[in-house]
Amino acid sequence: MTKGELVQAVMKATEMSRDEVEKAVEAITSAIIEAVANRDKLTVVGFGTFVASERKEREGKNPRTGEPITIPAARVPKFSAGKAFKDKVNPKAEVTAEKPKPAEAVKDKLGLKKKKG
Prior knowledge:
Largest sheet: 3 strands, antiparallel
CATH class of the largest domain: Few Secondary Structures
Strand content: 15-25%
Strand order of the largest sheet: 1-2-5
CATH architecture of the largest domain: Irregular
Order of helices and strands: HHEEEEEHH
Distance between the termini: 73 Å
């Protein structure tokens, strides 16, 4: 989905004008970028969390020459999807739970049951 398609979807859902929706989408993305750039953690409950993360300096290879290079440390944006978002993307099939076995049956099967006598 592109930004234009997002604007269209929001227009249909809210009955707002294109200009109003474009301003709202731009304001939201700008606010997220500013918060993360200022090292703030931005959490939208049910959607996810945006945060800046530090990446350490590391060794890499130039893909053309194979020559080793040092990749400098950097601060990078990260997004962690919230539970509701993850559940919508990956719905779990209904699991039929088995009736739990009595503790004695489990102990007997594992050979942990004490023998009388």
